[in-house]
Amino acid sequence: MASSATVAIAEDDPAIRELLLHHLEREGFAPLPITDGLAALRAARNVADLLLLDIGLPGLDGFEVLRTLRREGRAIPVVVVTARAEEIDRVIGLEMGADDYVCKPFSPRELVARIKALLRRSSRGAVRALEETPVRRFGRLEVDEAAREARVDSRTVALKPREFDLLLELVAHEGIALTRERLIERVWGADFDGDERTIDVHVRRLRAKLEEEAGLAPSLQTVRGYGYRFRGALPAT
Ligand code: CA
After folding, report:
1. What domain count does the chain have?
2. Helices (H), the chain
């Protein structure tokens, strides 16, 4: 159960904010109190697993926050907390995209139950999305993104995390030459603090594990003066 989920509480009324904070903490959540609409947007984009959203907020109001999140395609569950019964129709309308709502005054216990239900649903959704990630098969080689595992003849090849990321990036672009710069950007990103030979070292290790140890036909090709290409593993000979 996602009991340590980060729940952003966007509420400018200090008494209600404190009340929510207290109940969520007691239930083992990591509540994040927020007092204006812009901060709510930032929290929903970056850290929160669920957003409790007051409609009457300074800066951006709750409607604008919700509309912006959905326009950006963010699926974070949002529970609207509102004092105005006439807003409910707009809130639950498909146009706004709230997942649930409560009216003030509300029962904290009921709100917590709804939060738990929404988090269960959204974590199931995340698991499903991973399960739907296909296992890529190239002859005797399988690259299983969901399990983060490479297998040769169904036997796991012990790869370090970066080696797996590098292999995944290459097999995801089968037959296409990728520059070292691009591989660095995709596999290391901002963490990178080596030089381009780091890539060469990792490719060498991948070759050793896949080809020398697991007996796979050579499939990671050097493209001189450019980078590397996965050409697809050949069938066993
Ligand atoms: Ca308010």
Report:
1. 2
2. 14-26, 37-46, 62-71, 88-92, 108-131, 161-171, 180-187, 197-207
